[in-house]
Write a structure and sequence with these properties.
The chain is an alpha+beta fold. The chain has two domains: 3-356, Glycosyltransferase (Alpha/alpha barrel), CATH 1.50.10; 370-616, Distorted Sandwich (Beta-galactosidase, Chain A, domain 5), CATH 2.70.98. Helices cover 32% and strands 19% of the residues. It has 19 helices and 20 strands. The chain has helices at residues 3-13, 21-32, 57-66, 69-77, 85-95, 112-126, 128-131, 137-150, 162-173, 181-191, 211-227, 232-249, 274-281, 289-304, 353-356, 402-406, 425-429, 594-602, 607-616; strands spanning 194-196, 199-200, 368-371, 376-381, 386-391, 410-412, 435-438, 445-446, 451-456, 459-467, 470-479, 482-491, 495-500, 504-505, 512-516, 519-524, 527-533, 539-544, 556-565, 568-579. Helix 11 packs antiparallel against helix 12 (232-249) and helix 13 (274-281) packs antiparallel against helix 14. Mean pLDDT is 94; it is low at 1-13 and 619-623.
Length: 623
């Protein structure tokens, strides 16, 4: 393909850059258009690629069919136009007809198809004139029966409890009777997951990731908006929690709109910002409307600068680029279209204050935000151009590469994080932002399940046990733009250690490299990544991670400190920096000294600080 044709192709598929309501409307249509050629003859199956998820091809094709509705339904509910509704109407008729070859099948217990009923419920609730009224009597009967069966299916004890609730909202709108008592019980159960200060857990688990804003709060705000008149007490609580949560959640976004990549389901991409639109939909003025609008619009613009579409315009599996290694076992080819949740405010009229307010720049926020409900502290670095999350509590052993997605020590809006690509050597392990231990120097064990976690005043504490006779006690200290890591290692066996800083894009030529005893440093126009040893002289090196491991850049290098440890007690400490800019020509940024850290800790009120001081002062045993 000639350069001229390639330029034309990119211009043709590049979506609109959203700044106002009309831009957002165009964006929904432009992102949906590449799907149209992939509909099956009956319309019920959207076939956009091979399915490697753990659910069936039928469920994956329903997923691809249903998820665009999260954007298309608000588009038409708010008066926008869309030329292809006939495809979705035909699909609803075919997919719910037991006699049709494209029948989706009855929704069974713990079934991916139940997940996708939520978008159909929203469609009935907000746009019945497009998806219900035009159906024939027999087609309505089939859709009614299919949904009435789905609403009784057993669901996972987490945000999935909202799916029957959304079905109920749709059935309410089109006048279909059902028993509301089970949904009331589900809502009670969902509220029981509230942790305080606006936070939820996603079920009885350790997860406090993006499922809190784009699932727990998102669905709750839809319920509050559509059922608030008949359930005002619950709607008020849901709104109040969302307003409180917004004060914490704004810290997860850098000034350019980037959100901290963390946790599972990152392939949903700009669903990360869907909470901001849901606030508007439910009329929750937690922050000035111009601020809320700015959070959402900057986030969308950040995403549209990333290569997240294939040559035909379809959204790919991955995060910052097409990266199948990042995905979960439940991600099918249509999974990324849950990103369309970000388009919910299109259902609002043009005169809503969300749309009439002028977009405000990112607010000025404190440098460090402790969020103990999630076990994290957020650092705003370089005047908000980068956010670094320090993490000490969360874990997930079921999802693919859960240790990398939850249990690394730091996650950055600029440098992301890396997932392993194999089990042999540091290059495959991709050990950025963590400490890992090995018996043979080949197979590595990082922190997987932290315990005894605390977060207070920028000091995070955790323990982890990679072997029965090995325990690591770790402290993380927020010192923006740096963070300090201290480990007390108690081992009954000979071990090697590797501790990585942030991963830097190696496709950009390096400006400077400085590796040696006690340091591993690299800089380029892509940024600066430094790991300085504060308690010894571990060997410094650059590890070229295998391609496709980092969520932001396909090829990276990780500055890493390594050492060997005999059985006994050991103290490890380092200062870590990831900076957007290259360092000045005259030298490297000066890392915090051990003396400065001990001085800070001597005034720290947390009890964990005293144990950390004992470790830093070389006590042979921490008590």
């Amino acid at each position: 393909m000639s350069p001229e044709m390639e330029s034309y192709r990119m211009q043709r598929i590049r979506p609109a850059v959203p700044r106002d309501r009309e831009d957002l409307r165009r964006l929904v249509r432009e992102l949906t258009e590449p799907l149209i050629p992939h509909f099956s003859p009956g319309g019920a199956r959207l076939r956009i690629g091979g399915n490697a998820a753990h659910h069936s091809d039928t469920a994956a094709e329903l997923e691809s069919f249903a998820r665009p509705l999260w954007g298309l339904v608000p588009l038409v509910a708010g008066g926008g136009s869309f030329d292809h509704w006939e495809l979705w109407r035909r699909g609803l008729a075919s997919g719910t007809d037991p006699g049709h070859e494209e029948f989706w099948g009855a929704v069974t217990d713990i079934d991916q198809r139940l997940v996708e009923t939520a978008a159909i419920g929203l469609a009935l609730a907000l746009a019945p004139e497009e998806v219900w009224d035009p159906l024939s009597g027999g087609e309505r009967d089939n859709l009614r029966a299919w949904l009435l069966h789905a609403i009784t299916a057993e669901h996972v004890d987490n945000n999935w409890a909202f799916f029957p609730v959304l079905i109920g909202l749709g059935l309410d709108r089109v006048g279909v009777a059902y028993d509301p008592k089970p949904n009331a019980a589900r809502l009670d159960r969902l509220e029981s997951f509230a942790l305080g200060r606006g936070w939820y857990s996603d079920g009885p688990t350790a997860q406090r990731d993006y499922y809190v804003p784009f699932a727990m709060h998102y669905y709750g705000l839809i319920y509050a908006a559509l059922a608030g008149e008949r359930d005002p007490g619950r709607a008020g609580r849901l709104r109040e929690r969302a307003a409180e949560f917004a004060l914490d959640f704004q810290h997860w976004f850098a000034s350019d709109g980037a959100a901290v990549p963390f946790g599972r389901s990152l392939t949903y991409r700009f669903a990360q910002g869907a909470f901001w639109g849901a606030l508007a939909f439910a009329g929750v003025d937690a922050l000035p409307w111009g601020t809320v609008k700015g959070h959402l619009m900057r986030h969308l613009r950040w995403w549209l600068r990333r290569p997240i579409q294939d040559p035909s315009g379809l959204l790919t599996l991955g995060y910052g680029y097409a990266q199948p290694a990042l995905t979960e076992q439940y991600n099918g080819p249509g999974s990324p279209y849950w990103a369309f949740k970000a388009f919910l405010p299109l259902a609002l009229p043009a005169g809503h204050p969300f749309w009439t307010a002028g977009e405000r720049a990112a607010p000025s926020l404190p440098e460090v935000s402790d969020q103990p409900e999630a076990g994290v502290a957020l650092m705003r670095c370089e005047e908000g151009r980068q956010v670094v999350m320090l993490s000490a509590q969360q874990h997930h052993t079921w999802v693919r590469n859960g240790a990398a997605k939850y249990a690394k020590f730091a996650y950055s809006t600029s440098f992301g994080f890396s997932v392993p690509s194999g089990s042999w050597g540091l290059e495959q392990a991709a050990l950025d932002s963590t400490l890992a231990l090995s018996e043979d120097g080949v197979h590595w064990r990082p922190c997987e399940v932290p315990r005894d976690s605390t977060v207070r005043d920028g000091l995070l504490h955790l323990r982890w046990t990679p072997w029965p006779d090995v325990e690591v006690e770790t402290w993380l200290i927020a010192c923006p733009p740096w963070h300090i890591r201290v480990h007390h290692l108690s081992t009954g066996r000979h071990l090697r250690s590797a501790e990585g800083g942030f991963a830097l894009d190696r496709d950009v030529p390096f400006g400077r490299v400085d590796n040696g005893p006690g340091r591993a440093r690299v800089s380029s126009p892509a940024g600066t990544c430094v790991v300085d040893d504060l308690a010894g002289a571990r060997a410094g090196r650059l590890v070229e991670a295998l391609p496709g491991t980092n969520v932001m850049a396909p090829r990276t290098v990780i500055p890493t400190l390594t050492d060997a440890h005999a059985p006994g007690a050991h103290r490890l400490a380092c200062a870590v920096l990831g900076a957007v800019d290259a360092p000045p020509a005259e030298g490297w940024p000066a890392s915090p000294t051990l003396e400065a850290v001990t001085g800070l800790l001597s005034r720290h009120p947390a009890p964990e600080a005293a144990r950390l001081l004992a470790t830093l002062r070389g006590a042979p045993k921490v008590v």
